[in-house]
Design a protein that fits this description.
- It is a single chain.
- By secondary structure, the protein is mainly β.
- It has one domain.
- The chain has one helix and three strands.
- A three-stranded antiparallel sheet has the order 1-2-3, with no helix packed on it.
- It comes from Lachnospira eligens.
Length: about 50
């Protein structure tokens, strides 16, 4: 189990690759599978709800 940041790469409308970073609370590795878990304890701000 790890904790940290997950980088997600996508292509925008212009075809350029963009990177977003998401904070995760737990990363669980089970064989070749990887699961990212984010705890939703305090969802009071609109930014956290997104």
């Amino acid at each position: 189990m790890d904790v940290g940041i997950v980088d997600v790469y996508t292509k925008n409308d212009e075809g350029k690759t963009t990177r977003k970073q998401f904070e995760v609370d737990f990363v669980v590795n089970q064989g070749s599978q990887r699961y990212y878990i984010q705890v939703a304890y305090d969802m009071t701000s609109e930014e956290k709800q997104k």
